[in-house]
Amino acid sequence: MSKTLNEFKVGESGKIVTVNGEGRVRRRLFDMGVTPGAEVTMRKKAPLGDPIEVTLRGYELTLRKDEAALVETE
After folding, report:
1. How many CA atoms lie within 13 A of 63 on its CB side?
2. DSSP code of 5?
3. What gap in Å lies between CA 12 and CA 30, rounded to an integer?
4. Phi-psi map region of 65: left, alpha, beta (phi>0 left; psi -120 to 50 alpha)
5. What is the C-alpha to C-alpha distance for residues 39 and 16, in angstroms, rounded to an integer?
6. What are the tens digits of pLDDT across the range 1-18?
7. 3-state SS of 20-69?
8. Vertex 50, ends 44 and 53: CA angle to 5°?
């Protein structure tokens, strides 16, 4: 089942399938290690859901909700 990273619940894990978006946003995500094939785990969500913190490639990464919506996982 495919879903975007912003739909994850705390503690949920998945594998990145594709990164949507274009230009600077997509390049920035790739530079941070958000690439297809990487395992990702939701660590924390702010009270209003923005931002979120995920564990990716052994480090914690904080993303805005709109950035996380561009990352499709399985």
Report:
1. 30
2. G
3. 21
4. alpha
5. 6
6. 789 998 999 999 999 999
7. CCCHHHHHHHHHCCCCCCCEEEEEEECCCCCCEEEEECCEEEEECHHHHC
8. 30
SS3 category, 7: helix
Measured CA to CA, the distance from residue 11 to residue 73 in angstroms comes to 15
What six digits make up the tokens of 31? 């530079």
- 3 state DSSP class of 6: helix
What predicted TM-score, i.e. pTM, was given to this entire model? 0.85
Both structure tokens of 6: 């912003």
> Which region holds residue 29: left if phi is over 0, alpha if psi is between -120 and 50, else beta?
alpha
Indicate the residue type of 27.
R
**What tokens does 40 get?**
């990702």
Give per-residue pLDDT as tens, 37-56.
999 999 999 988 789 999 99
